[in-house]
Amino acid sequence: MLLVGSGSKFVQQLEQSGALAIFVTPEGGSEGHYLRRLRGAGYEVVTLSSKGIGDLASYLTCIHGVRPATLGKSERRTYFFPALIEQYRATLPPKAKGLVFWFYEGHVFSQQELSYLVKLSREDKGVKFVVELGRERSIRWQPLQSA
Q1: Using one digit for the tens of pLDDT, what is the confidence trace for 99-135?
Q2: Is 68 exposed, middle or buried (0-12, 13-18, 19+ CB in 10 A)?
Q3: What is the four-CA torsion angle of 121, 106, 41, 10, rounded to 10 degrees?
Q4: Among 7, 35, 78, 131, fewest CB within 10 Å belongs to which?
Q5: According to DSSP H, which parts of 41-110 are helical?
């Protein structure tokens, strides 16, 4: 018995909407099937935790500063990193369709941050987003705009 479908509808709907909200099973594992389908369709997939990102817009599209935790008497430093989208776009293979950012623990995002991801996926057609918003008995997804 086939527990998980072929994933072609998932890839097709992601290409149409640009950003998807996905609800996975609590025991996990089934989302790996869809990650493989995205890679097989020609996308480069980056998995990230949603916790601790900070300002989502500057993290994805601007040069942003990162301050590591100070350990006792060590001095405070700020390291500056390039925009995450541009950083991964520079390493894309020539035949890749684009980038997919897969955010797990997406329930920590505010409604404003989720709408920003939808807006960014519409502005930049080469970047797509999948956000795990919750848990359900079986895996399901919907466009992020309607979530």
Answers
A1: 999 999 999 999 999 999 999 999 999 999 999 999 9
A2: exposed
A3: -90
A4: 78
A5: 56-61, 84-89
